[in-house]
Amino acid sequence: MSFLLFETKQDKNFLLPLTYFRDISNIRIGIFKIYEKWERYLQDKAHIFTGDYLQEKYPFGGTYDLFIRSIFLPDKNLVKAVGNLKAGEVLQDEEGDIIAFRTREKIDPWKDFDIEKITAHFQSKRLSGLRKLTRPYDLIAYNADEIVNDVKHSGFIRIYMSNRDVHISGEYPVYIGAGTRLNGVYLDAREGPVFIGENVTILPFSYIKGPAAVMENSVVKAGTQIYEGTTLGPGTKAGGEIKNVLFFGNSNKGHNGYLGDSVVGEWCNFGAGTSNSNLKNNYSEVKMWHIASKRFEPTGRRFLGLVMGDFSKTAIHTRFNTGTVVGVVSNIFTPDFPPKFVSSFNWGGSGFNHDHDVEKALETAKIVYARRGKTFTHIDEKIFREVYRLVRDKE
Length: 395
Description:
Elements: E1 3-6, H1 9-14, E2 28-29, E3 32-33, H2 34-42, E4 46-49, E5 64-69, H3 76-83, E6 89-92, E7 98-107, H4 115-118, E8 123-126, H5 137-152, E9 166-169, E10 174-176, E11 181-182, E12 185-188, E13 194-196, E14 201-202, E15 207-209, E16 212-214, E17 219-220, E18 225-226, E19 230-232, E20 237-238, E21 241-249, E22 252-253, E23 258-266, E24 275-276, E25 287-290, E26 295-298, E27 306-308, E28 313-314, E29 319-320, E30 324-326, E31 331-332, E32 341-342, E33 346-348, E34 354-355, H6 358-371, H7 378-394
Parallel strand pairs: 1-4, 1-5, 6-8, 9-12, 10-13, 11-14, 12-15, 13-16, 14-17, 15-18, 16-19, 17-20, 18-21, 19-21, 20-22, 21-23, 23-27, 24-29, 27-30, 28-31, 30-32, 31-33
Antiparallel strand pairs: 2-3, 5-7, 6-7, 25-26, 33-34
């Protein structure tokens, strides 16, 4: 079943700053990225269409007749409904948003991808009860359930351990990948599964409560407390106390400090003692800055911490207020609370903000890639420079 995952410009803008450096289908939530979830369900390779500066990173070619919108997270009901689509049918949610459609003839999205025009005379089918990503904090709300779903539908039920110096409690599945080293670790699977990927190092006296996922090549420092709803993406270094946090990967929070109800992009670094608030003193609803609408919006959440874009960093003892948004490629160093919105390519954080020079930022990005054994390609540099240009219009 050849299929194409697509996003609209509005979809992408509504999830900023997390979509400056990736399309929506490459967002990790739970254990897998969204496109990987669809590939597992449909048993075929996903093709990705962004139609913008990111497309060179996800090359594809050919024509397609099945189109699926990336903001919808797959589950058994959605996958069944998509699989049952006939030519000339469009699947919509209860609000009328298009989820997926199948064309009568295969089309090339580069030539004509006016979705409303294509589906104008299609027969509509409706499906409700779906998880849809419309704001960055939706990732925080859904992450725990996605960990459970990814384990349940992916066959992760075995335990592989090179040593037995691990205490496991609870009836939910625990998966420990090959090459992983655990010593003096407590894995608590009483309320949800615990997934530990390959070549992970978890140092003594650490506690991990499910549902939680620690992806390949990550390091968990000694005495770290990881609570439910947390995903450490590949190559993450974690320390201190972490609860209901989604790290996309290759980021460092290796020191003491609390981080809760947050989502963190790739290539971020938290200075020692950095902490955040995830609950207001009066327990009222948290408002959060929305980049697309350029205003603070009610979120419907009482617990909400930090949304941080890729390549951003904090100095030691940085303190984030409840519901803070930090853009991409920002360096925050201030003795005060940073503002609740720190724009992209910001150097400072409060009172003495400066533009982060793109050439210096690029130099740093290449260094952090090399430290992880990765190459910063010419495509990466083109995207980096385009993001620098884009944020001037969007923020």
